[in-house]
Amino acid sequence: MLFASFNINGLRAAIGNGLLDFLANLQADIILLQETKLVTPIDLPISGYRCAWNFSQRSGYAGTAILFRKNPLEIHYGFTNTNFNNEGRIITLEYPSFFVVNVYVPNSQGYLRRWYYRLDWDAALLEYLAVLYTRKPIILGGDFNVAHNYLDIYPENQKNIENQTGFRAEERGGFDKLLELGFVDTFRFLHPNDSGFYTWWSGKNENRKYNRGRRIDYFIVSDTLKSKIQESSIVQADPISDHAPIKLVMGI
């Protein structure tokens, strides 16, 4: 199966930048989208897909969607803890032998305005996944808003990155806890020492042109699925948003 994930930074803007043709040509079985910035659904004329939407209550902010070809057994929106369900940041599809979870992890933001919300959200995600993990394997993808280690940040930025949003010890620790729960970072599983591979670039100083970025978009899967990982890569395509899409091929 081919899975794709893409922070599109606004669905309407991304459509204007060629998103629909890109997704149609990609021909993935399941497509995870983050930061749709919608409060109601819009038509996505891509043949063969149905769409599950989770909207933010705030217009022009956050939100997620999943496009899928094969109908799941069930679709679940949000956490069981309703304190974190007003921004549309998580959708779960349940299939007979696995779960697919799409996440858009909150950004701690400048001056750490949402620092505690982010840490509490990470804890809620871990608790939610721990329950799913006892039932069947999980394929988890999305924008995690953290570069996990130094290989995931462009080298010139490494010396002064320690206290910056998206690389603070607590944010990286939240990702560590997912791996400790029993997940595998699929890209690092196949490319343990590769550097220079990023999925997001700031719009300042021509950072994308010079590949000064961070890898903050991931597919991570239950350890029991790691033998099924065939490909985990960053898709090289014309820019549609400030993120690059990623894809995962699993032998399931």
What is the topological layout?
Layout: E1 2-7, H1 11-16, H2 19-26, E2 30-34, E3 50-54, E4 64-68, E5 74-77, E6 90-94, E7 99-104, H3 115-133, E8 138-143, H4 169-181, E9 183-185, H5 186-190, E10 200-201, E11 213-214, E12 217-222, E13 229-234, E14 246-250
Parallel strand pairs: 1-2, 7-8
Antiparallel strand pairs: 1-14, 2-4, 3-4, 5-6, 6-7, 8-12, 9-12, 10-11, 13-14
Please, could you describe this protein's structure?
This protein has 252 residues and is of the alpha+beta class. The chain has a single domain (2-250), classed as Deoxyribonuclease I, Chain A. Helices cover 20% and strands 26% of the residues. It contains five helices and 14 strands. It has helices at 11-16, 19-26, 115-133, 169-181, 186-190; strands at 2-7, 30-34, 50-54, 64-68, 74-77, 90-94, 99-104, 138-143, 183-185, 200-201, 213-214, 217-222, 229-234, 246-250. The strands form three sheets. It has a six-stranded mixed beta sheet. A six-stranded mixed beta sheet has the order 5-6-7-8-12-9. A two-stranded antiparallel sheet has the order 10-11. The chain is globular. The termini are close together.
| Strand percentage | 25-35%
The helix-and-strand class reads alpha+beta
- Calculate the terminal CA-CA distance, rounded to whole Å: 6 Å
By CATH, the topology is Deoxyribonuclease I, Chain A
**Overall geometric form:** globular
Q: List low-pLDDT spans.
A: none
CATH-defined superfamily: Endonuclease/exonuclease/phosphatase
Radius of gyration: 17 Å
Series of secondary-structure elements, N-terminal to C-terminal: EHHEEEEEEHEHEHEEEEE
CATH hierarchy, class: Alpha Beta
